[in-house]
Design a protein that fits this description.
It contains eleven helices and 23 strands. The protein is an alpha+beta fold and 380 residues long. The longest helix is centred in the N-terminal third of the chain and has 26 residues.
Length: 380
């Protein structure tokens, strides 16, 4: 009798184990099959000879993009009546070029039109320009945000966290001379001068904006390719090739098209990187809970229906550093609404059961900035 009871018990235990394994595997199948979108490296905000303050040649931009494995470039020459007609659009070598435009500062608001509509003519009113761009299904991105008010920025589609050109020229004469003298030597391009107090203030500002509205961020190279150490004499500094090595904006998308680039920038399915510290491709930041994978720029809502009672529907935020570029001094940070809530060294960092809020990923190398991601919003 005991053997019969034991046999029945073992059969039920085995049946339950098989059922549990089947349900668990079936429930996690979507996550297992998920394929991360492609990572495309891009440059946003730069000028060519089509701008009044630049003498850069388009062929040099194409060459610099090829040398630095740039997948897309958003040209932002200063608007003029002939800009759209003269600008280049489409693939050159392996780089996608998109026509944008910088619209001059009005009431301390500088806009980047992305893409530039064919028949767009800006007015001397930044609000009307934002409305006009939206009517034409274009983005109105805010550049040089340190000059703008919060009430102005909330009406735009994204903010420029740092601007290479502005940081380099915003110095007194002695500081400017010393900075450029230092920058002549490639070994000194450690980006310490890029991530300055102004950039930190802009980052805090960005976190603050995202508490009330969705505000994606990008970085602006603002390359003009015409600065020399001694005004018009001496070696050229800040060339396309040099600045493309420094800061980039990456998007995650299934394919490389103008539409996918604009959409990723609009949603914030993107991150930006100071790539003199290493190739950022391979970086991952996402939230999961057995069924769903949520990327930056998206809202994470627990799925329904709920999984079986014996499977915990656990939400986890994950950050992965590019494996081939990490070192013992690679620090990963998880930031919630502007506050670091978890950090660690290495290639991987997880946070389980995150509370509602905006979560950002940061990766630093040797206490220098490397990778910063747009947020994932946890909503419950």
């Amino acid at each position: 009798m005991k053997n019969i009871i034991l046999g029945i018990t073992l059969r039920f235990a085995l049946l339950f184990l098989l059922l549990f394994t089947f349900v668990y595997l079936a429930h996690g199948q979507k996550l297992k099959e998920y394929k991360f979108p492609n990572d495309y490296r891009g440059i946003i905000h730069l000028h060519s000879e089509l701008s009044h303050d630049s003498d850069g040649k388009f062929e040099n931009i194409v060459k610099a993009a090829k040398n630095n494995d740039i997948d897309f470039v958003v040209m932002t020459d200063h608007w003029s009546p002939t800009l759209y007609k003269k600008s280049k659009r489409g693939f050159f070598e392996n780089t996608l070029f998109i026509i944008g435009a910088e619209i001059s500062k009005n009431e301390n608001v500088t806009l980047i039109a992305l893409p530039l509509p064919k028949n767009f003519v800006p007015e001397n009113d930044w609000k009307k320009n934002v409305m006009s761009l939206h009517e034409k299904d274009s983005l109105a991105l805010a550049s040089h945000i340190e000059f703008s008010q919060t009430s102005q920025l909330v009406e735009t589609d994204g903010v420029e966290i740092t601007n290479l050109h502005a940081i380099l020229v915003d110095r007194n004469y002695f500081g400017f001379f010393w900075l450029w003298t230092k920058a002549i030597w490639p070994k000194n391009w450690d980006l310490a001068f890029l991530f300055n107090s102004k950039t930190i203030e802009n980052t805090i500002y960005w976190h603050y904006l995202n508490k009330s509205i969705k505000m994606p961020a990008f970085v602006g190279n603002d390359t003009h390719d015409n600065y020399r150490l001694f005004y018009k004499l001496g070696p050229k500094l800040g060339s396309y090739d040099n600045t493309f090595k420094l800061i980039t904006t990456h998007i995650w998308a299934e394919e490389l098209t103008e539409k996918s680039v604009v959409e990723a920038i609009k949603t914030g399915q993107s991150y930006f990187a100071f790539e003199s510290f290493g190739d950022a491709k391979g970086f991952r930041f996402y939230a999961t809970n057995n069924e769903n994978v949520i990327l930056p720029g998206n809202i994470f809502i627990p799925p329904t229906p709920k999984p079986p009672f014996f499977i915990k529907n656990k939400t986890t935020i994950t950050i992965k550093a590019p494996l081939n570029k990490i070192s013992n001094n690679t620090k990963i940070k998880i930031i919630k609404d502007g506050v670091v809530i978890k950090e660690g060294f290495g290639a991987l960092l997880n946070l389980e059961d995150p509370k509602p809020g905006n979560y950002y990923a940061e990766i630093w190398k040797n206490e220098k900035p490397w990778i910063f991601s747009n947020p994932i919003k946890i909503y419950q």
